[in-house]
Amino acid sequence: MCADELGLRAQTFSTPTSVFVSVESDEGLSTYLARVVPGEVDISKMMEIDRLFNRVIENELSATDGIAEIKRIVKLPGLYPAWMIVMSFGIVSGCVGNFLGGGIKEMFASGIVGLSVGILVLFAGKNREFSRLIEFLSGLVAALISGALAAPLGGYMPAVAAIAGLIILLPGLTFTIAMVELATKHVVSGTARLAGAMMVMLVIGFGFIIGQRGAELMVGPTEVVVAGPMAWYVDVLSILISTVCMAVLFQARMRHAWVMVVAGFLSFYSARYGAMYLGPEAGGLGAALVVGCASNLYARVFDRPAMTMMLPGLLMLVPGALGLRSLQLFMSNDTVDGVQSVFTVLVVGVALVVGLLLSNVIMPPRKVL
User: What is the dihedral of CA 265, 270, 275, 276, to 10 degrees?
Assistant: First the structure.
């Protein structure tokens, strides 16, 4: 669309790590190849680029000035200090401990694990070689800490604490995006993204299993005590707090945090009641449909990127925790349950994809973002 507005003919081909662009004008044909590295989600920069896109399309800004503005936006520093991001890791993980069926002990342990993973991610980002081990080390640290906390906490569910502590790093969102790309016939990009998500899951899972064995050697077998149900207001507070902290993790301005809060409530309760009355597959489809329609409506009404609402909504739906649980079952030689869990992950992923595609039919998106 941008090329058409500028009077150019363009063909693009993109993968998660590269972009090919051929531009034809009156002066001839030019082809460009750029190597790209997937980065962190930064909603504030996404909004800035979205506004810049509108200004170029409406001829308020030339294409040359637009390119200069993009370079300036990309170089902008983050909105929040490192300590706030690390704290958000812990708080979101603690809230997810409740979503995964844990109690007070699981939420506390999840927060400790998430805080440790956040510190690890912070320091790993300063060293390129060390950063390549971040998934393995995160899985290892999560399993070690959750196992070590079993003794002082007097018995709880260590697996819930470990998975909740890793929830930000689990590639469930990447897996869902890959499934959407495959469903829309973007085979190369979808296959590459799917392979990347599977590799990340395998590396995290390998570290997780090694950490579990290490925890067993240090503290011995731990008693698993199933947590009782929590009060309804704990869910409400967990959704509210976790979605506000997601604004920090996604580098969104606090004046836009209400969008993420709305997305969190829509996602959580539509998935819960959909699964209760229609089953988990139809519940996932319905939740993705609700989040997708709400995100596209928000984009149309407020002229903002739909991803502002869609990202936190999908993060609460994606089957990352199920994927890690599947790998854990395989590593424990529980092949039958492992295969069943993998099939559940695939079915949930397909349900989310169908729900998002249906939402684009019911409420067409304003544009790509």
Answer: 90
More confident: 172 or 122: 122
Q: Which residue has the higher pLDDT, 96 or 316?
A: 96
Token pair belonging to 244: 């506000």
Q: Is there a domain that residue 367 lies in? A: no
Domain range for residue 165? Answer: 82-362
**CB burial string 17-32: b at 16+ within 10 A, e below:** eeeeeebeeeeeeeee
Count of the separate structural domains present in the chain: 3
pLDDT tier at 322, thresholds 50, 70, 90: low
The structure tokens 């499934």 sit at 179
Helices (H), the chain: 2-5, 43-57, 63-74, 82-99, 104-124, 128-131, 134-148, 150-153, 158-165, 172-183, 187-219, 232-249, 257-278, 280-302, 307-315, 320-331, 335-362
Contact 118, 85 (CB under 8 A): yes
Q: Tell whether 256 and 347 lie within a shared domain.
A: yes
Quote the pLDDT of residue 333. 59
Structure pTM? 0.84
What integer best gives the mean pLDDT of the chain?
A: 80
Whether residue 92 sits in one domain with residue 22: no
Same domain, residue pair 20 and 123? no
User: Could you tell me if residue 226 is inside a domain?
Assistant: yes
DSSP 184: T
